[in-house]
Amino acid sequence: MEDQEMQLKVKKVTDRFMESLYFLANEPSVALYRLQEHVRRSLPELVQHKTDMQEVEEQGQGAIYTVEYACSAVKGMSNSGVHFRSIEGLLRQTISIKEQLSSLQGRSSIVTQAPPDPSSSSSSFSSSSRVQTQGHAPFIPGSDAKGTP
């Protein structure tokens, strides 16, 4: 019988001891200690994630700036159509004037071919290579083929 009593007393002591350990393990100060351990372990990883996200944000801002700059360049190109049409018109006008000058040069060289002047042989232009316009107005840039602005 004494053995049973002893076992009962040992059981009570161990139960109370376990209860005390359980209480100490779950005490608020211990909980705060565990929380502090967790923060110390996970904080460096969180800081690394934050810096990674900041780098990604900077790269994103750079990409946004590049796209906005490209869009403004494309808009500028679409507005340049007016200038290209103006250039095309000027080129057509230039071709027309060149053709007129070529035809005038062909006519004038047939009509008036002067013999080369021996004294002007050192000159870079001979009189036979000059265009004689015979009553035509000289070409003025920015004017039409007749010389009027």
Query: What average pLDDT do the residues reach?
Result: 80
N to C succession of SSEs? HHH
Query: How far from one another are the termini?
Result: 135 Å
Percent helix range: over 70%
Q: Got a strand count?
A: 0
Sum up the overall morphology in one term. Answer: rod-shaped
Helix run count: 3
> Segments where pLDDT lies below 50 for 5+ residues?
122-136
Q: What class do helices, strands and sheet pairing give? A: mainly alpha
Please report which band the strand proportion falls in: under 5%, 5-15%, 15-25%, 25-35%, 35-45% or over 45%. under 5%
Major β-sheet profile:
none
Gyration radius over CA = 50 Å
Organism: Callorhinchus milii
Region (Disordered): 104-149
Family: Belongs to the BORCS8 family.
Biased composition (Low complexity): 119-129
Main attributes of the structure:
149 residues, 3 helices, lysosome, BLOC-1 related complex subunit 8, BORCS8
Structure report:
The protein has 149 residues and is mainly alpha-helical. The chain has a domain at 1-104. Helix content is 72%, strand content 0%. It is built from three helices and no strands. The radius of gyration is 50 Å and the shape is rod-shaped. Residues 122-136 have low confidence and may be disordered. Belongs to the BORCS8 family. Residues 119-129 have a biased composition (Low complexity). One of its GO terms (cellular component) is lysosomal membrane. This is BLOC-1 related complex subunit 8.
